[in-house]
Design a protein that fits this description.
Largest sheet: 4 strands, antiparallel
Number of strands: 7
Distance between the termini: 25 Å
Helix content: 25-40%
Strand content: 25-35%
Structural class: alpha+beta
Number of domains: 2
Shape: globular
Radius of gyration: 18 Å
């Protein structure tokens, strides 16, 4: 997987790899990807289509590195999948802030800023039971919650790593309209 990912990154290509799920159910659909965690760990995007045999409706769960997860309800009509409902947008405001993000907020107490990789943040914030990719996704999903506590979250990708930036912002300076990101800190 890593050789294929390196080739795609080097050539600026997107590669779509279709793989089967394991037969045993799991509450986390990304754990049903057959094989080792190396598959989901090496790729930038993972999509899991969950459909019961004979059912015309399916749930497509999509996760990207450092991007909000999506849950799309699809319906199979006339030999093609059509979007029926985007469940991820509906429930965005209802999602509780996960423990990892709350720990990062506590970690930032008394700090004006911090920069490093997700792995470094895990070590320094004491999040040893969290994977780097998961932490990046959760910080991105809840960047607004971070901003509401006075912490601006952003990332920058280099050839070798993705650097996370956490910056303390003064109350009343939460407006991010001038950063060119239109509210998304990527």
């Amino acid at each position: 997987m890593s050789a294929l990912k390196k080739l795609a990154d080097g050539l600026g290509l997107a590669v779509l790899l279709v793989h089967h799920q394991r037969k045993m159910d799991d509450p986390d659909p990304f754990n049903t990807v057959s094989g080792t965690n190396g598959i989901t760990g090496a790729v930038d995007t993972t999509m899991v289509l969950d459909r019961r045999r004979g059912d015309k409706r399916a749930l497509l769960k999509v996760t990207w590195r450092d991007v909000i997860e999506r849950e799309l309800v699809l319906e199979f009509n006339d030999c093609r999948w059509e979007l029926s409902e985007d469940q991820s947008v509906e429930h965005e405001e209802e999602r509780p802030v996960p423990r990892e993000v709350l720990e990062v907020i506590r970690f930032m107490d008394g700090r004006l800023g911090w920069a490093g990789t997700a792995t470094e943040l895990i070590a320094q914030a004491g999040l040893s039971d969290t994977q780097a990719a998961r932490l990046g996704r959760k910080l991105t999903e809840h960047s607004q919650a971070l901003l509401e506590t006075g912490i601006r979250y952003s990332t920058q990708r280099t050839a070798s790593a993705r650097t996370i930036f956490l910056e303390r912002v003064a109350e009343g300076q939460f407006d991010d309209s001038s950063d060119g990101n239109d509210g998304t800190f990527l």
